[in-house]
Amino acid sequence: MTGPLPPEVSLSALGPRTRIGTGGQGTVYALTEDPRWVYKEYATRFVDDVDVTTLNRFVRLAAGAGPDAETLLGLAAWPTAVVRKEGVVRGFLMPRVPDRFRVRIQLPRGPDTVLAQVQYLLNSDAYLLDRGLHVDDRMRLELLRDTGEALTLLHRLGVCVGDLSPNNLLFSLDSRPRCYFIDCDAMRLDGDSVLAQAETPEWHVPDADAEELATPATDAYKFGLLAVRLFAGDQQTRDPQAARPRLDRQLVTLAGRSLDPAPHLRPAPQQWSDALERSIRRTPPTPPPRRAAPPTGPEPTRPAAARADPVRPVVPAPAVAGSRPTGRGWGLAVAALAAVAVLAGLLSGNDDSPGRPYPTRPVLPTGLLGQPSYPPLPTGIPGLTRPTGGAAGATRYPDLPLRTTLDLRELIPLTRVCLFTDVRVGTGLDRTSTRTKSSVTAVRGFLCEINTDEPDLDDRSRTQLARAATLTKNGPFPVATIIGIRTATGGPQVNVVFDPDGDGSSSGCWRSRLSLVTDDDGYHVGSLSAPTRSYCP
């Protein structure tokens, strides 16, 4: 089909088409006869859920007269025609992404031309150099300026992006506009959505349970998040100070205000305009760096962390918690085993190096008054209380049939458990919410290692224990920082960065997503995703 598009077309009128992409909601096809447009067809399971009235309003907005409609089609793959099959709405047409929003990039499999997703830019300079991308701070500022201007226009038209994330935002390296939105049918028009609103993991607002999604305030929050991560070169951080010194003080302040848990305190993207313009004028372009010539001799031995490709950490979706014996997650599959493990940790202390054996007779630390002092206890573990003095000075734990003078190595093949002396809540999260407090409790009670050689475990449990062992061998972790909490089917998911030094100065932190499950005693860790290296918060 050629010529102007009518507001509705028949699927049969599209002619031959070629699949060019598949997403969570449907499949995108290129039209052989008219390369200006692509067709998004909703997956069968979503067809009945599509709000056809709202989709038609999206189409009418793009067809409206005036410069705003023309500008809209220049910065977004906006729905331009509804597509029906036998009277049923199956999808819509939208503009094909302009070539300037594609980029030639060096991937591990070789060079390729791909959509220029902003996610590529949220990485270190070394990563960008390895990918053949030259992105200086001037370009980053211009991208922010253009994104802010685009959001300002969308808000004026009654549109909220909602799922503003680096997967749905493209960049160009040549001319303005430097930003381009895709997946526009996921946006919200005058409070209405084509399909239910969703958020990309790591790009959710602080309290999705309490805050309405897809509003100017949520867009403002995610715009601030984009600014911080773009200049920090970090996919997960929510700390505005991580963008210093590359982002000037006034912009860092704006970012901090944008990440405020209170929606009404966040500045609109338009309020960034003057500060961005001043910073752009003060920031000259920089020439691309020269890549070092490859060494001619054998590669010297380097630590594993240095050899790792600085690719953004990818967190696989955690497994869905299944049946849980004794009402706990996998980490407490056997209550007695967990209790003994915690007891072992209390007796040996948190600072044992990997492989250090337990003493035959454990020595408890001494407090200010000469009495034994103890690290914080995890909550929700049956029968675990503070020790009380017994006959002849023997130390006993009520409800546990175990004397502390026994050699614990004879009872259980453990090497260490991690008890977090400090669980912190990251910037941008509501510290006072019930969900945050419950997440802190669950993380504080998280066991970092139990017996991974138990022969009766199923494959899923072995996988989970192996993931926990990855954390343990890189610990102990005196600090665990919660950097994100999102609601998911089955229970909250908590993104945690484990700091082995406790001062945030190391780049050797580890990150995992803990899926929480609940019972009568509250939330507990049900499963965790594969731990990945991460920058300390």
List the helices and strands and how they pair.
Elements: E1 8-10, E2 17-22, E3 26-31, E4 37-42, H1 44-47, H2 52-63, H3 67-75, E5 81-85, E6 88-95, E7 102-107, E8 110-115, H4 125-130, H5 137-156, E9 159-160, E10 169-171, E11 179-181, E12 188-189, E13 192-193, H6 216-232, H7 249-258, H8 273-282, H9 304-307, H10 335-348, E14 388-389, E15 395-396, E16 422-425, H11 434-444, H12 459-473, E17 479-488, E18 491-499, E19 509-519, E20 522-528, E21 532-534
Parallel strand pairs: 1-5, 16-17
Antiparallel strand pairs: 2-3, 3-4, 4-6, 5-6, 7-8, 9-12, 10-11, 12-13, 14-15, 17-18, 18-19, 19-20, 19-21
Helix pairs in contact: 5-6, 5-8, 6-7
Main sheet attributes: strand count, strand direction, barrel closure: 6 strands, mixed
Overall 3D geometry?
A: globular
Would you count the extended β strands for me?
A: 21
Q: Calculate the mean pLDDT score and round it.
A: 75
Broad structural category: alpha+beta
- The domain tally reads 3
Percent helix: 10-25%
Which strand-content bin applies to the residues? Answer: 15-25%
Please give the alpha-carbon distance between the first and last residues.
53 Å
Strand numbers in spatial order across the main sheet: 1-5-6-4-3-2
Low-confidence stretches: 297-417, 449-453
What attributes characterize this protein structure?
25% helix; ATP binding; 20% strand; 537 residues; Phosphorylase Kinase, domain 1; 3 domains; Kinase-like_dom_sf; Transferase(Phosphotransferase), domain 1; alpha+beta; 21 strands
